[in-house]
Amino acid sequence: MSDENSHELPLFLDFLDPNHTYKAILYRDADNADWATNPAAYVVEKKTVTAQTNLTLRLAKGGGCAIQLVRR
Known about the structure:
Layout: E1 6-12, E2 22-29, E3 42-49, E4 54-60, E5 65-71
Antiparallel strand pairs: 1-4, 2-3, 2-5
């Protein structure tokens, strides 16, 4: 993902219940994603997160991200 065609989005998870941990499944743009030449490039990541977790999402131009949160 070239820097001029992407941007970073901070995501603070402080809305989560502070007494629990969560499994986060992120469906995000791959590093080589590009809306014109490689629009279907994505990565699935799994992370353990809490209300104190801050994520930085790197999005391709015209791209996006979906996150599923499952309380443990």
